[in-house]
Design goal:
This is Glycogen debranching N-terminal domain-containing protein. By secondary structure, the protein is of the alpha+beta class. α7 packs across α10. The protein has a twelve-stranded antiparallel β-sheet, with no helix packed on it. The C terminus is likely disordered.
């Protein structure tokens, strides 16, 4: 549920306010007034993800100094929505009040809010005793919201009115319950068939989230921003879990408010970030993605055999194929990332059973890289949507329309081969080779994959390197020419290992140089490029997830001080967001603003931003699985003091890691550990 600071929901097609379930907005109007006046919140308690309490008085802030009445609005959410209204009469006489709640639903699909469209079905309000039923039908698509009150109410098609008489210093209460129903083909609520039934009490949610957080390693440190960000991340990751309709497993949603669903890319990067802390979150994601792996050529959904999905939606527009998200496969990086994640998961957990179980799916993913993924037959992964009407043009992680450009701002034609896609493919082949050799008893296949990876690395370093600028091109255009913008993507190349050792120092220097590094983090696009905009979605903002992968890449090549610089900048930024790193923030210079500037429509919380402090911890403590052991090689940034992580889970059982800030002469750079 998303509301304004008064707890109200006003109909909006600009921002997704409302009560949502599986991509449908069940309540779009929820406005409380007292004697014709809107209420103002004196204080809001929103420390828990599933409960909020508003302490309210009528009128604007300047009018409430001697308020004779107040309202406490307590709400909780867990498969349904409940709100308790308590009106308190602070005067010395009995008083009459008129409390009004405007109620309405447009049953909008999330995509209809993003791109305003007229509804094709019909909403019918039905007045019942102390209840209002709102029903939406479009052919077999049937959704319903029923709002009921425990106190007597005058109900009409637009809401409820309570005429209340309250004694001196007395109070009055009603409990409102909103039941949402997603009807299946046989007329049943499809969420009722799930293992958890779609409904949990606040106490059950509280117990479940606490149990998850308790299982995470315990952090002790001298750095308060790190401690705060770690606590917030665990809380947000626990809160973002949801029960999937498709398999009935618990998954982590990508982000609030737009992305409360499974995303291939986001879900896998989040899984990589949380592996050392909460590995139990990872296996359901891997299984879900494997179960929905592409099996045919479907132009509308950008589906191809072996391909891993981009996004799964459940709403009306997906159901009627007005959007291809049922599921949609328009991502060129997810398939390699699937192999990378499976291998990393086994290295941490020792779960060989899953590797054997998913051998077919993993081989199919690796085959996709060299077949459908290589659109031009050049040995690289390219992308171009099969669905020009409703498909995504850009199918890399920077998937907004203007994110891939030449240095002068021009846009290349399609297909495009962005640099990080080749890095992921290289890493996936090496990891696939390890799985084939150690688990599938297929050394010939392993040898082949390793030869292909070596050839790809050599080819990539020849074709993507821009010698006069000493960095890799953002992409190749269809003619094989350099798309020469300087971007954060080169940091992902370090993470993948495809960068020649001799070129790594130049890449590190660019990443931490003034064109890309703002002081708060690495920008998505350097500040002297044609399309640079410090508040442009992928053309100058700073993305915490992006920076965590860059820090991991710098660490892999031995640039410990540089990795630590990114860790410090991210954690310093987190202080200004109450420990919760948003999806992205502006790319302004640190000296210009003294604080990181918010990006206007950033998701918060977002899963891979919540995972960022966890991955930064792994980087600072130098955690790396090796066989049955965990290697610990800390390099804590100067000024951060002691960092201690207890009970790190993995195939080794549970181990502890301790690091302290090094002095400048302790740092050694440029050597792989």
């Amino acid at each position: 549920m998303v509301s304004d600071g008064r707890g109200n929901i006003e109909p909006s097609y600009d921002f997704p306010t409302g009560l949502f379930s599986f991509d449908t907005r069940f309540i779009s109007t929820w406005i409380l007034s007292l004697d014709g006046q809107l209420l103002h919140a004196l204080s809001i308690d929103d420390s828990l993800s599933y409960k909020t309490r508003f302490f309210m008085v009528p009128g604007e802030p300047t009018h409430y100094l001697d308020a004779k009445v107040s309202v406490i609005r307590s709400r909780s959410i867990g498969g349904s929505f409940d709100e308790e209204l308590t009106l308190l009469n602070h005067s010395e006489q009995e008083k009459e009040f008129r409390l009004r709640l405007e109620i309405g639903s447009d049953f909008a699909d999330l995509f209809e809010i993003k791109h305003r469209r007229e509804k094709k079905g019909r909403t019918t309000p039905t007045v019942e005793e102390n209840a209002l039923r709102l029903t939406y039908r479009r052919e077999a698509f049937h959704r319903e919201a029923r709002v009921s009150s425990t106190a007597p109410a005058e109900v009409d098609a637009n809401g409820m009115t309570f005429r209340i008489r309250v004694p001196a210093h007395g109070e009055w209460t009603t409990r409102l319950h909103v039941a949402t129903v997603i009807y299946g083909a046989r007329g049943e609520d499809i969420r009722a068939t799930l293992p958890l039934g779609g409904h949990r009490s606040a106490s059950e949610i509280h117990a479940e989230q606490n149990a998850l957080i308790e299982r995470a390693p315990k952090l002790g440190c001298d750095c308060e921003p790190l401690a705060g960000a770690y606590r917030r991340s665990l809380n947000d990751l626990a809160a973002l879990r949801y029960e999937s309709i498709a398999l009935g497993v618990r998954l982590v949603a990508a982000g609030l408010p737009w992305f409360m669903t499974l995303f291939g890319r986001d879900s896998m990067f989040t899984s990589l970030q949380v592996l050392p802390f909460l590995p139990e979150l990872v296996q359901p994601t891997i299984l879900m993605l494997a179960g929905l792996q592409g099996s045919r050529v479907d132009d509308f959904r950008d589906e191809e055999p072996g391909k891993i999905l981009h996004e799964l939606r459940y709403g009306e527009t997906a159901g009627f194929e007005e959007q291809p998200h049922s599921p949609y496969y328009g991502a060129a990086d997810t398939t390699a990332l699937f192999v990378i994640l499976l291998d990393e998961y086994e290295r941490w957990t020792g779960d060989a059973k899953l590797v054997h179980q998913l051998e077919y799916e993993t081989r199919a993913a690796l085959a996709w890289l060299d077949t459908y993924g290589d659109l031009l037959g050049t040995g690289y992964v390219w992308y171009m949507s099969r669905n020009p009407e409703t498909g995504l043009p850009n199918q890399c992680w920077k998937d907004s329309p203007d994110s891939i450009s030449y240095a002068d701002g021009r846009m290349p034609d399609f297909p495009r081969a962005t640099c990080e896609l080749q890095g992921y493919a290289y890493d996936a082949k090496l990891r696939g080779a390890r799985l084939a050799r150690t688990h599938w008893n297929d050394p010939a296949y392993a040898d082949r994959l390793e030869r292909e990876a070596a050839a790809l690395k050599e080819r990539f370093n020849r074709d993507f390197w821009i010698p006069e600028r000493e960095y890799y091109a953002l992409a190749l255009d269809p003619q094989g020419r350099h798309v020469d913008a300087l971007t954060s993507n080169i940091g992902h190349l370090l993470w993948s290992g495809i960068v020649d050792e001799s070129r790594a120092p130049a890449i590190a220097a660019h990443l931490l140089g003034p064109r890309l590094f703002s002081g708060w983090g690495v920008r998505t696009l350097a500040d002297d490029q044609g399309r640079y905009n410090p508040i442009g979605y992928h053309v100058g903002t700073v993305w915490p997830f992006d920076n965590s992968i860059i820090a991991w890449g710098l660490w892999k090549y031995g640039f410990r001080a540089e990795a630590g610089q990114i860790c410090e900048s991210m954690l310093s930024a987190s202080r200004y967001f109450d420990g919760r790193l948003p999806e992205a923030f502006a790319g302004y210079e640190r000296g210009l603003t003294d604080y990181p500037v918010e990006y206007p429509t950033a998701c918060s919380p977002q899963a891979w931003s919540a995972g960022t402090p966890l991955l930064l911890l792994r980087v600072m403590l130098g955690l790396e699985p090796q066989g049955e052991h965990l290697i610990i090689d800390p390099a804590v940034p100067p000024g951060m003091g002691r960092v201690e992580l207890l009970d790190i889970p993995g195939r080794w059982g549970r181990v502890d890691a301790l690091g302290r800030s090094r002095t400048a002469h302790d740092e050694h750079r440029g050597h792989r550990h």
